[in-house]
Amino acid sequence: MCGIVGGVSKRNVLPILLEGLKRLEYRGYDSAGVAFRNNKKVSLVKTQGRVADLESQLDGSLKSLQGIAHTRWATHGVPSTKNAHPQDSGNSIFVVHNGIIENHENLRKKLTKEGFKFKSDTDTEVISHLVNLYKTKGYDFDSAVMRTIAELKGAYALGIIDLDNPDLVIGAREHSPLVVGEGIEENFIASDVMALSQVTNKFKFLQDGQIALIGSDKIQIMSKNGTAKKIPTQEIDSNSFTNDLAGYSHFMEKEIFEQPKALQDALQGRVTSEGTQEGIFGAGFEDQVKDVTNIQIVACGTSFHAGRIFEFWSHKFLGVNCRVDYGSEYQYQEPIKTDKTLLVTISQSGETADTLSSLKFAKKTGKPVTLTICNVANSSMCRESDFSLLTNAGPEIGVASTKAFVTQLACLNLLLLTMMQLKKQPKKAIQNISSSLLQLPKKINKTFDMLKVYKDVAKLLFNKNSALFLGRGMYFPIAREGALKLKEISYIHAEAYPAGELKHGPLALIDKDMPVLALVPDNEHLDKIQSNIQEVAARKGRVITIGPLGKTKIGKNGGHIKIPKTLDLHNPIISVVPMQLISYYTALLKGTDVDKPRNLAKSVTVE
Ligand code: M6R
Question: Most buried residue among 58, 156, 348, 587 by CB atoms closer than 10 A?
Answer without folding.
Answer: 348
